[in-house]
Design brief:
Layout (H helix, E strand, L loop, with lengths): L5 H39 L20 H9 L3 H30 L2 H18 L6
Helix pairs in contact: 1-3, 2-3, 3-4
Length: 132
Amino acid sequence: MNTEPKKYRLDWDIQQLIGNMLRFGVWLSAGIAGIGGIIYLLAHGLEKAPVYKVYAGEPAVFRSISAVIKGALVFNSSSIMQLGVLLLIATPIARVLFSFFAFLMEKDYLYVFITFIVLSILVFSMTGGIGV
């Protein structure tokens, strides 16, 4: 017979779910970036090293998420590696979003408010913030 309080059990389950989500996100992003790296090395491994004296900027394929996904779907190795990096960045953001809804379910409104502030800051910074 389980004598643990229901709230404690729910907290533990949510912590386990968040931990598994973070582990899965990191492993998935590492796997995708690794596959992209292998494909890149197979195609370009014997090329001469690039010259970094002049900054050329990012190619258009890396300037938007949709362009990275389109490039990855056609097996562009650099796009696949970039997709892995994007998934790595998205993993803790997904954790904050999940925490927001978990706190909302638990009716822990102080943490809902704090998590909302953190989420707002993340969204604000990712969308460019204030144009200066």
